[in-house]
Amino acid sequence: MPPGPYLPARPFRPHRRRRPRPRPRPRREDPMRSALALLATLAVLLTAAATPSRAPGPQADPVRTPAAPVYTVRLTGDSAGTGWHGHESVRFTNASAEPLREVYLRLWDNAHGGCPASPITVHGLTGGTPDAPSVGCTALRVALPSPLGRGASGVIGFDLGIRVPSGADRFGHDGRYSFLGNALPVLAVRDAAGWHLDPYTDNGESFYSQAADFAVTLDHPSDLLVPATGSSHDTPGSAGRTVTTAVASKVRDFAWAAGPFAKISATSHAGVRVSVYSAAGVGPSDARSMLELATSAIDAHARRFGAYPYGELAAVLDDDFWFSGMEYPGFVLDRVSTSALVHELAHQWWYGIVGDDEYNDPWLDEAFSDYATDLALGRLGEGCWNAVSWTSADERLTGSMRYWDAHPTRYGTVVYDYGKCALHDLRRLIGDTAMAALLRDYARDHWYGVSTTAEFKSAARAAAGTDLTGFWELHRIDG
Ligand SMILES: [Zn+2]
To answer: Which of 35, 41, 376, 435 is least enclosed by beta carbons within 10 angstroms?
Structure first.
């Protein structure tokens, strides 16, 4: 969705935040096309209205399902790296005692370009029966041939087409550089609240997925590099082409880029192979300083929250991004910015390894990543809570993206700034040692799992050894 009319209070933010960007110029359309488009939009809105964003079942099971997805993808890119087609399949297991009668694919990038001119197309689906897409074409329900009991597995497969639109975005191409975040359809999660079918947001993230395994084969022109989630190796393809195979284990998503990047690499002291891919406009000295920062920051976060498990990391730099940075497993997009890069790397733990429902609980990854950034940069947040000023009683640190999409100018201030200040305050309250142990142990206990506010509060209470009700109330941390 297009950004709102306001300008951020500060011109540069260390995280994915809305920044001003040009509004797309409306295209001229003939009246009949416009009328048809309006009807299509109404149909989508009606479908979305008929589909509750989270439909609780009669005896909703808190177990998150489908579990342990295994994605196998083969795609061929066109000469520009903006068009990709091929096949995707996903095997999944029902972890719940409640039968699994359906799954939902999230086609997140159909939020770019809308319905029905969708940039992500799914055809020839096998292993189930698809409905018409819903939630602005970002959700596709697939009825399974028969219900899966607990422990039973299913497989669906489909032909996949991807058309990358113009724009320096997490899904977009900036000239010859294409960025494919959220381009692969992934399975939605069903839990105690039912199916999570929340809408896409451009203010932050809506993504909520289980840790999964990916094997992705990308056949592309040899003059394009394709940094990607996971570990990659290249083999020669047909004339002038290269086949890059990327394998990733226990990741919540898979992202890649394609372009004539300048690449430099180094290995951190702890053994993480970090590569920086620079688009045109990012100079070699900036690339080198970002590489040095990335290798030190990934180790600093690992010392606090547990060893980085993925072995490799790609940092893709483009100073044209309208946001400051965006996180994916083993893959981050960034402008040249110290705090943005350290923040996105912290997301490897807070969102990636320790997952969360980013639509309903954005503070669990954003405040935690900003707090980790402060620690890595030696900032202690002294007195930062003194700057807190609420605009209404409804404004909660734990607000969902539904709230922040209605109050976008407050999202960064409350969730990031107040959020990290609350964590600094908690550290001051329980002590540096107890706070460090709390986060380290909490990450260990939720490794490849999902964090919730209630579980974090429970862990914090245990670490504090005292009731923290007053602390949560003061800091407006509900749940
Ligand atoms: Zn962030």
So the answer is: 35
Distance 156 CA to ligand 1 centre (A): 32
The token pair that represents 15 in the structure block: 């995280």
Please name which of 153, 116, 120, 122 lies closest in space to residue 136, comparing C-alpha atoms.
Answer: 116
- Say how far residue 92 (Cα) sits from the centre of its chain: 20
Domains and CATH numbers, the chain: 54-346 (2.60.40.1730), 363-474 (no CATH)
Burial-class residue 364 by CB neighbours within 10 Å (0-12, 13-18, 19+): buried
Given a cut of 50, is residue 46 above it in pLDDT? no
Is residue 426 over pLDDT 70? yes
Distance 365 CA to ligand 1 centre (A): 7
Which contacts qualify for 305-308: CB closer than 8 Å, 24 or more apart?
A: 305/349, 305/350, 305/353, 305/372, 305/439, 305/440, 305/443, 306/349, 306/353, 306/440, 306/443, 306/444, 306/447, 307/270, 308/270, 308/272, 308/348
* Residue 370 CA to ligand 1 centre (angstroms): 7
Instruction: List strand residue ranges (DSSP E) for 310-459, in order.
Output: 312-317, 325-328, 331-334
Peptide bond preceding 66: is omega within 30 degrees of 0, i.e. cis? yes
Residue 351 CA, ligand 1 centroid: distance in Å:
9
Q: Give residue 440's identity as a one-letter amino acid code.
A: R
- The three-state secondary structure class of 39 is helix
Distance (angstroms) between ligand 1 centre and the Cα of 33 equals 39
Ligand 1 mean position, distance from CA 374 (Å):
13
CA of 71 to the centre of ligand 1 (A): 25
Residue 16 has pLDDT above 60, yes or no: no
Q: Report which of 381, 391, 346, 379 is spatially closest to residue 364, judged by C-alpha positions.
A: 346
Compute the distance from residue 291 Cα to the ligand 1 centre, in Å: 19
Is-contact 181 167, C-beta < 8 A?
Answer: no
pLDDT for the residue 29: 31
- Distance (Å) from CA 414 to ligand 1 centroid: 13
Task: Using the mean position of ligand 1's atoms as its centre, give its distance from the Cα of residue 287 in Å.
Answer: 21
pLDDT tens digit string along 371-416?
Answer: 999 999 999 999 999 989 999 999 999 999 999 999 999 999 999 9
In angstroms, what is the span from residue 362 Cα to ligand 1's centroid?
Answer: 9
300 Cβ contact partners less than 8 Å away, ≥ 6 residues apart: 375, 376
Distance of alpha carbon 131 from alpha carbon 67, whole angstroms: 22
Distance 347 CA to ligand 1 centre (A): 7
d(C-alpha 244, C-alpha 37), whole Å: 39
* Separation between Cα atoms, residue 141 and residue 464, nearest integer Å: 44
